[in-house]
Amino acid sequence: MGIILRFVNKQGKVIERFLGLESVEDTTLTAIQGCLVGFLVRHGLSISRIRGQGYHGQSNMRGEFNDLQRQIRDKHGCPDSRASVSIETIESFEFVFILKMMLKLFAIINELSLILQQKDQDISQAMGLLVDVNECLKTLRDNGWDALFEDVKKFCAANEILVPNMDEHIPSMGHSRLSGITVSQLHYYRVQIFFAAIDSIRTEMSHRFNDVSMDLLVRFSCLDPKRNFSQFDVEKIAQLADIYSEDFLEADRALMKDQLEAYICYVRTHVEFTFCRDIASLAAKMVETKQHIIFPLVYRLLELALLLPVATASVERISSAVNIIPTDMCNEIPIDWLSDFAVYYIEEDISKDLDAEKILERFQSMVTQRMQ
């Protein structure tokens, strides 16, 4: 499990730091919670000061399947057979269908994916795209099958790829021929692949952005500085202090509306705030102009908005970094050593300034002390 700390520094800028790797026996909530709390305690951090949510990407990590595949190939396969199987797979109706379908899906979700992976997220833009993407996916599901199917058939005809008989019955997905459970080819491609892929994406979006998350996004989007703070809503923003009650004293909550009113009058009449493009640049400008001292409650809301963990960019970056180590080597390397290696590799902007000679001297002195 990789642990990332996302925080707002003293300059009002969002910083993400990889703290390390922690070994987990399973991915149950209890096990992950225990590992996370233990890790934070060892580093002198309090779980009560943490805001956000974890990202569990275990479903995307199919290393066990790759290991099994490699063992079978080593014992029974040969390079030539793999090449021939690959060509046969590519020159099939199913491969073409899935490829064409994925191209359509990526065209719809790509822009939203890119925005959600940015460290400095534009909450308002992300919210608008969430609604648009969900509507486009619904339209594709309801009305997109015929056009996709015709496109695939034309491609197959042009490239001499056999198009199966859509009335033919085949074993249903997840069942063997012996089970006797069959579906038509049309049902297989339309329902079990096309509908299932779209439903899977929409379900993941609804889980990731449920009613509670969307309510928070709506309220935080009211802080967006675009168009001279056109979305600013005192009532919606003030209620955030009640939602994040641990971050605001009762006296703070009583003062919140008055401070919001004074704040919006100030930022709308000072030209330096007209160039803020999102909440991240607004927070930085607040610190630069010392207004985070004048409006501390508003600035605290901006900090909370910047900590909303709707992006997975750091998670993907860390997974990619760890993936450069062969799986069998990962299993042999102690987790502490692997964690230290990952921190050094991932936090390159910090590690590049370290003096290698001083590190060697430190280790040599440690060895000398142990020998004594």
Report on this structure.
The chain has a two-stranded antiparallel ribbon. The protein is extended and about 70 Å long. Strand 1 and strand 2 form a beta hairpin. The longest helix is centred in the N-terminal third of the chain and has 24 residues. The protein is mainly alpha-helical and 372 residues long. The two termini are 38 Å apart. It has 19 helices and four strands. Helix 4 packs antiparallel against helix 5 and helix 12 runs antiparallel to helix 14. About 9% of the residues have low confidence. It has a domain of 118 residues.
List keywords for this structure.
single chain; 372 residues; mainly alpha; two-stranded antiparallel ribbon; two-stranded antiparallel sheet; 19 helices; 4 strands; extended
Distance between the termini: 38 Å
- Spans of at least 5 consecutive residues whose pLDDT stays below 50 are 53-73, 75-85
What kind of assembly state do the chains in view correspond to? Answer: single chain
Largest sheet: 2 strands, antiparallel
Radius of gyration: 27 Å
What is the succession of H and E elements? EEHHHHHHEEHHHHHHHHHHHHH
Domain DUF4371: 1-66
Protein name: DUF4371 domain-containing protein
Pfam families: DUF4371
InterPro entries: AtLOH3-like, DUF4371
Overview in brief:
By secondary structure, the chain is mainly alpha-helical. The protein contains 19 helices and four strands. The strands form two sheets. A two-stranded antiparallel ribbon has the order 1-2.
